[in-house]
Specification:
Blueprint (H helix, E strand, L loop, with lengths): L1 H7 L1 H5 L6 H16 L9 H23 L1 H4 L14 E3 L3 E3 L1 H27 L1 H27 L10
Parallel strand pairs: 1-2
Helix pairs in contact: 3-7, 4-6
Keywords: Membrane, Transmembrane, Transmembrane helix
Length: about 160
């Protein structure tokens, strides 16, 4: 039913709506920022490389461990079991064994590589981002005016040619 609606009303459903101009501007702005401030792997410092790649390897190992060794990491507790039967959350009588806690902690620590990378990207692109935002703010009114003109003159026929 949805596919039929899309096929029979494609032109109307894909037409840009003037009331969405602010959302379109935010999408354009985000795209320009991503395009202009792209960070390449060779430009990243070696220490961040090591943290990020090492964290990825540890996450993969933890994921495999959780999948293949779940019987060693988690104790049995069925959904239908009474909650009073649960003695503790951690340990030999809890839901998660000590080894399970260690694996989950290792996974959490491995996330710090991605956090370090994101912080480095933010810091290293801060000045360029500030300059770009000023330039984009200057362009906003003209861009919106051009976009509205394009939206108003949008062709009524199906652009796919069918």
């Amino acid at each position: 039913a949805i596919q039929n609606q899309l096929e029979s009303n494609f032109a109307e459903l894909t037409r840009p709506l003037p009331e969405n101009i602010d959302l379109e501007w935010l999408d354009f702005r985000a795209g320009e920022i991503n395009r202009a401030l792209r960070v390449s792997w060779p430009g990243v410092p070696r220490g961040i490389h090591a943290l990020y790649a090492g964290g990825c390897v540890v996450q993969i190992m933890c994921g495999h461990g959780l999948y293949w060794g779940h019987q060693y990491l988690f104790n049995s507790f069925e959904v239908s079991d009474p909650i009073e039967q649960l003695e503790s959350f951690l340990g030999p009588t809890g839901i998660i064994t000590v080894l399970g806690v260690a694996v989950l902690c290792a996974y959490g620590v491995a996330l710090l590589g991605a956090v370090a990378f994101r912080i480095w990207v933010r810091v290293s692109t801060r000045r360029g981002r500030a300059r770009l935002l000023v330039e984009l703010d200057r362009q906003e009114a003209q861009w919106k005016e051009d976009w509205l003109a394009k939206a108003r003159s949008w062709p009524a026929e199906d652009p796919r040619g069918s």
